[in-house]
Design brief:
- This protein is α/β, with parallel strands linked by helices and about 425 residues long.
- The chain has two domains: about 5-235, Rossmann fold; about 255-420, 3-Layer(aba) Sandwich (Molybdenum Cofactor Biosythetic Enzyme, Chain A), CATH 3.40.980.20.
- Helix content is about 35%, strand content about 20%.
- It has helices spanning about 10-25, 60-75, 95-105, 155-160, 170-175, 180-190, 205-215, 265-275, 285, 290-300, 315-325, 330-350, 360-370, 415-420; strands at about 5-10, 30-35, 45-50, 80-85, 110-115, 125, 130, 135, 165-170, 195-200, 220, 255-260, 280, 310, 350-360, 375-380, 385-390, 400-405.
- A 15-stranded mixed sheet has the order 9-10-5-11-4-1-3-2-16-17-18-15-12-14-13, with helices on both faces. It has a three-stranded antiparallel sheet with strand order 6-7-8, with no helix packed on it.
- Strand 16 and strand 17 (about 385-390) form a beta hairpin.
- Helix 2 runs parallel beside helix 3 (about 95-105) and helix 11 (about 315-325) crosses helix 12 (about 330-350).
- The longest helix has 21 residues, at about 330-350.
- The radius of gyration is 21 Å and the shape is globular.
- The two termini are about 30 Å apart.
- The model has no long low-confidence stretch (mean pLDDT about 95).
- Bound molecules: adenosine-5'-diphosphate and ligand LB5GJZVW.
- One of its GO terms (molecular function) is ATP binding.
- It is an enzyme of class 2 (transferase).
- It comes from Telmatospirillum siberiense.
- InterPro entries: 4-carb_acid_sugar_kinase_N, 4-carb_acid_sugar_kinase_N_sf, NBD_C, NBD_C_sf, OtnK.
- This is 3-oxo-tetronate kinase.
Length: about 425
């Protein structure tokens, strides 16, 4: 049977986050890396195509997303989901708004929602304002993000700056009145010429309400939270039991690669450094042409048999700023991503087959370097971060790797220490 739900994620950690949520809600889900060039397995209800489109030039994000949509339509999907970050990571140029509008045009639909809420990870929306924990988005650590600093918590205003269509709001009072009230509000907003509605959500009950109200929308744009509420709409076609496969995982050497500078990762790196060997990647050394990759691998080789090692570029906002001032934002990010990706390849050659990667862009670079074509979703470690098992990687000689792609700001402080115990 054809898959029902076709998802396009703007980064790879976001992709596994969404795929993990769908699996938890009962849909058999597979994550593909980039637009696939091969057919899907039969036993799939939802497909997530993970792109690296969050921070690339707008035109590239739009064309990659449209290519993914074409593939998903050909695969037979009947509803489409554009997944972005629960902290709405974007700039005034995009890419959330332009991609959402391009998908709306391609699907010939005049209305969709935008809802990054993810209450399990403390992302809530009230009166259109996005909160991260107890503070508005612009007061959270996202104000210091190296690539997409977020400086306005008002999502109506933030999205309006990125799109041609009018942006409106379905507020909390309406959501609390249930899915019929939300649907009625959608109709009113459409009548007022609104094309995209930010939707308030404070808890998982709200996500179920919103999911039910979205049953007839061809396109949903959201963080992974809304995935809690969509599968219930498909019970006519699929059995929501028994989706969660626990793929068998690696048993070999272990490593953590961290390129995220988000506050959760800063804490997780600090915690791991107290217990395991660690190697810091310095962007200024990379820029000077020092063979940092070779040094890191020579350092890791004798240590790996004794337990997991950590290789990280994670740095404080002040250190990131200093590197960016010296090298430029893009060059600093790119040098580190390329180095960490090359290190990941080297670690696999050394026998690592259980790998945690922290950071969305970083995960994108690593997964591409390892030529991973797809991921089967395994057990959840923390909300939004499942273990996965790789499909079809030419770099591993066909051997599957267990990988956890950790979103920068997800996970408890002991994430890198406890994650291994979730492997079978
Ligand atoms: N020390 C550093 N200085 C400057 N940029 C850095 C540093 N360490 C990592 N970066 C870059 O910051 C970006 C972090 O993005 P990402 O991997 O998506 O993390 P997150 O998931 O926290 O957003 C990457 O491009 C990475 O290469
Ligand atoms: O929705 C989320 O917060 C995550 O799924 C996600 O996309 C995080 O991105 P990174 O912080 O860049 O890993």
């Amino acid at each position: 049977m054809a898959p029902i739900l076709g998802c396009i994620a703007d980064d790879f950690t976001g992709g596994t986050d969404l795929a993990g949520m769908l699996v938890k809600s009962g849909m058999r889900t597979i994550q593909m890396i980039g637009v696939p060039d091969h057919p899907l397995p039969d036993d799939v209800d939802a497909v997530v195509i993970a792109l690296k489109s969050r921070t690339c030039p707008v035109e590239e994000a739009v064309s990659d997303s449209l290519a993914a949509l074409r593939w998903l339509r050909q695969a037979g999907c009947r509803q489409f989901y554009f997944k972005y970050c629960s902290t709405f990571d974007s700039t005034p140029k995009g890419n959330i708004g332009p991609v959402a509008e391009a998908l709306m045009d391609a699907l010939d639909t005049d209305f969709t929602i935008a809802c990054p809420a993810f209450p399990a990870n403390h992302r809530t929306i009230y009166k259109g304002q996005l909160f991260v924990g107890d503070v508005p988005l612009d007061e959270s650590s996202m104000q210091h993000h190296p690539l997409t600093p977020m400086t306005d918590a008002n999502l109506v205003r933030t999205l309006q700056a990125q799109v041609k269509r009018k942006v409106g709001l379905v507020d909390y009072q309406t959501v609390r009145r249930g899915s019929d009230a939300v649907r009625a509000r959608f109709a009113d907003l459409k009548g007022d010429g609104i094309g995209i509605a930010i939707v308030d959500a404070l808890d998982d009950g709200d996500l179920l309400t919103i999911g039910a109200a979205c049953a007839d929308l061809p396109l949903v744009t959201a963080g992974s939270g809304i995935a809690v509420g969509l599968p219930q709409n498909f019970t006519d076609a699929i059995d929501l039991d028994g989706a969660a496969v626990t793929p068998s995982a690696g048993t070999g050497l272990r490593a953590v690669i961290a390129g995220s500078c988000s506050s959760a990762t800063l804490g997780q790196v600090a915690a791991m450094r107290t217990r395991h060997p660690s190697f810091l990647i310095d962007p200024l050394e990379l820029a000077k042409g020092v063979d940092v990759v070779g040094r890191a691998l020579s350092w890791a080789a004798p240590l790996l048999p004794d337990g997991p090692v950590l290789i990280y570029a994670t740095a404080s906002p002040a250190e990131v700023k200093a590197a960016q001032t010296a090298l430029g934002v893009d060059r600093a990010g790119m040098l580190i991503e390329q180095a960490l990706a090359a290190i990941a390849k080297g670690l696999v050659v050394l026998g690592v087959d259980r790998l945690i990667v922290a950071g969305g862009e970083t995960s994108g670079a690593v997964v591409k370097a390892l030529d991973v074509k797809g991921l089967r979703i395994g057990r959840e470690i923390d909300p939004g971060v499942p273990w996965t098992v790789t499909l079809r990687s030419s770099e591993t000689g066909g051997k599957p790797l267990a990988m956890a792609l950790k979103s920068g700001n997800f996970g408890t402080p002991d994430f890198f220490l406890k994650a291994w115990s979730h492997l079978s």
